[in-house]
Structures are given as structure tokens and as C-alpha cells.
Write a structure and sequence with these properties.
2 domains, 15 helices, single chain, 30% helix, binds zinc ion
Length: 478
């Protein structure tokens, strides 16, 4: 007997869209069959008539339970929201897996561990999330500063244990020097991992920060002049050259400028395994919004740029240059978010994990710019492929985890704070009119949100071991 049957919906599978019924047993999809052909007396049956049945959303970029720097928060001891709160919001937003970070320089709940091994630090980070997450989760491992040789030598072991992506910054305090990056890329490439890169040209950012301060123009609304287009162009292309020399796959987190998208397109035209992510706020806002009252609430580093960049990112998502959407989830309360208002002190990030699917659907699918299959690619499947979870995650197919979202394309809903589920007191999407909304979320066969009502438990989520397919690292596969 099946544990669960979903019938009557329009299902997006890897081989196309159709009217299928789905059978689920022991957390897995065991049947994808023609409508009304599953005779089994299932324990639970869900009627998905009028709904899209999609693979659960995958959020590839979150900062949960992370210490907020005192420069941003204005006071010590502030953390971003807990795994319970963030994963609760995720579940309500149709997201069944998120990838956060372990390692790095930023203090986390477990304190400074920068002298410990990668595996020790992973265990420490896992213990913060285990038993506290409504959805599944994984970690990119962040390498920061002048990374010691012994740490670089541990990369192979970490990849073997299921950590397939390594995050680096080319700016900020955690900037990794290029010589170290060369060694890291080689180790990650040789081990079958992929680099997740925050690329900005540190010299140009620092020069512009000093110039803006000198000229009395260091207000938060000028963030895009410090974290600017040329910096993204040059840094993306340097990283791509390094990836080409070391034969290492690259996942650019938050592509923010049309120049970044062009650099990715050029690399992909050369068949290099280079992938890019767009954040949903960058697909909607421009730096002009920074000037509005409380306008810097929309800010995520690097910086939201010009209308031509917003349009360029949209086009890059539509034409397949960019592979994923994400949020850089970084949830605080508004007093923290707005505490600093200079180019050096505006707090990054916002509570976005719940709003990505409906915002992206509204902007791209309900307007006819992309198909429902392409929507599934940029909200789930591509992240699963690039970051090593496919086909366990990101697919409605026999043998895949039964992570499923029922999405109602006819539900019109205006986003209001009252109906969101993060631990926060603002939303940058307040008043945004969604045409289409996720209504029911299923994690490994268990209904965790049923028609907007939370049914899951913070003990439901598991840590995920990942492994990137060799084909993803050989060519731009998605
Ligand atoms: Zn981030």
C-alpha cells in the first residue's frame, strides 16, 4: 500500500508536463502514472485538481543562525533568525531544501573555530540545525582569509563526506588572496567539488568606498557606486580565468550586474562549467529604491544596481545564461536592518526564503516570459544539479525523494507581513501582488504545510550529503 497518492494535478517531470498521478512510499516517489491509473488504496490521497505539482523548491543560498557583524547591527550579540523560523518560512514558501554555510570567519553559535578541521566545523554547524529544521538542509563550506595548507589538504575528505561546494569571497574581511584561491580551486576541482564564489574586485570597492567617504557621499543609497558594475565585470572574468586554468566548476552566487551575466555567457559559450544565480530582489528593484524611506531594507551585498542591470538579469534568466534563483536569506528585525545607513554599515540581506517562488512565478510565468518547466529549473532542478543533489532532489521521478509543492496558479495573493512566517517585522515584498502561490508542501512524503497550515515538525529536516555529477563539471549542463 502506498503512503500517499497525489492525483488530478498538472505535473512537471524531467520529461515534460502532463496529467499524472503520483504514488509515494517510504519517503520516495515510486510511481508517476497516467491519471486514474493508480488503483492502490493509499493511506492518504491529495486532490491536486487545478494545481501544478512541482518538485519542492531548493534555496541554494541562506545565512541562518549567523552572527550579524557589530558594524551592521550597531550592537554585539545579534544573530540572524534560527533554523526553526527560517525553515518554517521556507516550508510555507514551497521550499523543501536549503543550503546554508559552515566554516568561514563569521562567528556562529559555536564560537570561533577557525583553527579546527573542516570535518569538526561541519559537525559543529550540523548540530545547530539537526532537530531544528522543518525542511532538509546542507552546507557550502566557506574558506576565508589566508587558508592554511592543511585545510586545503582536507578538501578531498570533505567532498568524500558529502560537502560538494566551497564558498569564497574576493572582498570583505574574509577575502581569500588569489594565490590561495589558485590552490583551493585545484583541490576542489581535483576532488570533484564546485566553487561557490562571491566575486567583487576588492581594490575597486575599497577605492570607491574611500572616495565616496572623502566626498561626503557615503550614504547608503550610494552602495551601488562602491559595489559597482566594473568591479563585477573584472572579478567575474578573473575567477573564470582561474577556473579555466584549474578546470574547476564555478557557481557565481548573486550575479548583480549585466556585466556579470555577460561574463558568464562568454564562459558558457566556451563550454566552461560556469553557472550563475540571481537573487529575487535584484530581478525587481533598482538602486533608486534605496532613496525611498527605509529604502535600504531591500539591500543585499554586493548592491542593487541600475534598471539596465535588472533588465539584463531578467533576460539572462530567460535565455538560460543564469541557472538559478536564490534569496541570500539573512533575516533580522527592522531596527537591525536599518541600524547602519552608510556604504560601510548597511546590513546585508533580508527575509526572502518564503517569497521567492511566488515572486519569480508572478514576474516570469504569469507574464508568459518563461514556461512552467523553466520555472521548475530555476527554482529547484538546476540548483539540485549544480550543487550535487540531483536526482534525489529537484525531480518528480521514480526513485527521487518525495519533495513536492502544490502550486495554485489561480491564487491571487498580496504579500503582507501578517501572512509571512519568518521571525521578522518587515518584508521588502509588502504589497507585492502575487499571481500564483504555493499552497501545500510535502517533504519526503510527509505533508509539512497543508493549504497554508503548518503540519510539519522541526525534527523533520535531515542534513543532505551531496555529490556533483561529472557532467555538470565538464560542460555548462543547465
Ligand atoms: Zn550570501
Amino acid at each position: 500500500m502506498l503512503d500517499l497518492k497525489i492525483h488530478g494535478g498538472t505535473v512537471v517531470t524531467p520529461s515534460g508536463v502532463g496529467q499524472f498521478d503520483i504514488g509515494i512510499q517510504d519517503e520516495k516517489i515510486v510511481l508517476v502514472a497516467a491519471r486514474n491509473s493508480i488503483i492502490d488504496e493509499s493511506q492518504i490521497s491529495i486532490d491536486a485538481t487545478g494545481k501544478y505539482v512541482l518538485p519542492g523548491g531548493i534555496e541554494p543560498h541562506t545565512h541562518i543562525a549567523t552572527r550579524v557583524s557589530e558594524d551592521w547591527a550597531g550592537r554585539p550579540g545579534v544573530m540572524t533568525q534560527s533554523p526553526e523560523a527560517a525553515s518554517r518560512a521556507a516550508a510555507h514558501g514551497g521550499v523543501t531544501t536549503y543550503i546554508d554555510f559552515a566554516g568561514g570567519m563569521e562567528g556562529t553559535e559555536e564560537g570561533d573555530q577557525s583553527d579546527k578541521s573542516i570535518m569538526t566545523r561541519l559537525d559543529a554547524r550540523r548540530s545547530v540545525f539537526s532537530g531544528h529544521s522543518y525542511t532538509d538542509f546542507a552546507f557550502h563550506f566557506t574558506l576565508a582569509g589566508e587558508v592554511p595548507t592543511r585545510t586545503i589538504e582536507e578538501i578531498g575528505e570533505a567532498v568524500q563526506s558529502g560537502v560538494s561546494s566551497f564558498k569564497i569571497f574576493t572582498t570583505f574581511g574574509s577575502k581569500v588572496p588569489y594565490g590561495h584561491l589558485w590552490a583551493i580551486f585545484e583541490a576542489v576541482g581535483n576532488s570533484g567539488g564546485i566553487m561557490a564564489v562571491h566575486a567583487e574586485d576588492d581594490d575597486m570597492v575599497k577605492y570607491m568606498e574611500a572616495k565616496l567617504i572623502r566626498e561626503g557621499r557615503d550614504q547608503g543609497y550610494n552602495l551601488h557606486l562602491a559595489h559597482n558594475n566594473i568591479s563585477e565585470d573584472i572579478s567575474f572574468r578573473k575567477i573564470i580565468r582561474l577556473s579555466e586554468h584549474t578546470e574547476t566548476g564555478i557557481y557565481f552566487v548573486h550575479t548583480t550586474a549585466k556585466e556579470g551575466a555577460y561574463a558568464i555567457a562568454d564562459a558558457r559559450n566556451k563550454q566552461l562549467p560556469v553557472y550563475g544565480e540571481a537573487l529575487h530582489n535584484y530581478l525587481h528593484f533598482t538602486h533608486d529604491h534605496y532613496r525611498e524611506p527605509e529604502g535600504t531594507a531591500i539591500h543585499t551585498y554586493p548592491a542593487i544596481k541600475h534598471a539596465s542591470d535588472r533588465d539584463g538579469l531578467q533576460e539572462a534568466l530567460i535565455n538560460g545564461t543564469l541557472s538559478t534563483t536564490a534569496t541570500d536569506e539573512y533575516t533580522t528585525y527592522k531596527d537591525i536592518k536599518l541600524s547602519g545607513n552608510t556604504i560601510e554599515t548597511v546590513c546585508g540581506g533580508h527575509n526572502g526564503i518564503e517569497t521567492r517562488l511566488p515572486v519569480v512565478y508572478t514576474k516570469f510565468v504569469s507574464t508568459g516570459l518563461i514556461s512552467i518547466e523553466h520555472f521548475v529549473d530555476i527554482t529547484s532542478t538546476n540548483a539540485a544539479k549544480i550543487l550535487g543533489m540531483y536526482p534525489q532532489k529537484g525531480a518528480i521521478a521514480t526513485g527521487s525523494d518525495a519533495d513536492i509543492v502544490l502550486f495554485d496558479p489561480d491564487m491571487n495573493k498580496t504579500i503582507t507581513l501578517d501572512e509571512l512566517h519568518a521571525d521578522s517585522d518587515y518584508s521588502i515584498w509588502e504589497g507585492f501582488e502575487c499571481q500564483g502561490y504555493p499552497v501545500t508542501t510535502i517533504l519526503r512524503g510527509k505533508v509539512i504545510v497543508d493549504n497554508g497550515e503548518l503540519k510539519g515538525s522541526p525534527t523533520d529536516g535531515n542534513w543532505l550529503a551531496r555529490k556533483v555529477a561529472p557532467s555538470v563539471l565538464a560542460n555548462p549542463e543547465c
